[in-house]
Amino acid sequence: MAEILLIEDDVTIRTALTRGLRELGHAVSSSPTALDGLRLALRDRPDLVVLDLGLPDLDGVELLRMLRAVSQVPVIVATARDGDDEMVPVLDAGADDYVVKPFSAVQLDARVRAVLRRAGDERSPDTSVTVAGLRLDPRTREATLDGTPLELTPREFDLLHFLATRAGEVVTKRELLSEVWQVAYGGADKTVDVHLSWLRRKLGETAQEPRYLVTVRGVGVKLVDPA
Ligand code: CA
């Protein structure tokens, strides 16, 4: 479900799309003019704007430029005009995608979901980390070793992810307590040791025969590429 603002002057199209998008679960508001649409876009902060290019008071591309000056809201342009010559300036002006008339609410919905998915991905960049066969994805909290899922507690995940982002570097227990446990001062090194030993077991290694988690005596621990 998304909050969609539809800026379209043709009442037949506006009514049909509003109804169709609502049936698909979206919340839809609409405007028949460019300037009123701009006002609504800024006031209501919709998740996405569907913008007709041929509007009575202002060219849609002009409106798009005005909108882009103040907002990064995803915009899908609806146009009767087709072809590269027509669409390149529209995309240059900041449209995220376009649909060519006539189109159905179902087709528009597919574009809406694709554009929102893309926008969402950009907002939460891929911060997954891979070291040899070890892969950690903080967005899904999934950890795998050689393709096999690891059953980690949240703390174990955070600890392993922190070490993996610093692969090859020695990290002190003090630093781990502060970064992973959020302990500003105090805190016992023993806590770190215990979690490291649990992690080692899950990774199928020991302190004596480490593969990924290497203890640097008197300093801390480092995560390494076993190769
Ligand atoms: Ca129109």
Automatic annotation (TrEMBL):
Annotated Gene3D superfamilies: 3.40.50.2300, 6.10.250.690, Winged helix-like DNA-binding domain superfamily/Winged helix DNA-binding domain (1.10.10.10)
CC terms in the record's Gene Ontology section: cytosol; protein-DNA complex
Ranges where the OmpR/PhoB-type domain occurs: 126-225
InterPro entries (alphabetical): CheY-like_superfamily, OmpR/PhoB-type_DNA-bd, Sig_transdc_resp-reg_receiver, WalR-like, WH-like_DNA-bd_sf
Classification via Pfam families: Response_reg, Trans_reg_C
4-aspartylphosphate PTM positions: D52
Alphabetized UniProt keyword annotations: DNA-binding, Phosphoprotein, Transcription, Transcription regulation, Two-component regulatory system
Annotated ranges, domain Response regulatory: 3-116
The entry's DNA-binding region: 126-225
GO biological process, one term: regulation of DNA-templated transcription
Entry GO MF terms: phosphorelay response regulator activity; transcription cis-regulatory region binding
Domain of life: Bacteria
SUPFAM superfamilies xrefs: CheY-like
Name of the protein in its database record: DNA-binding response regulator
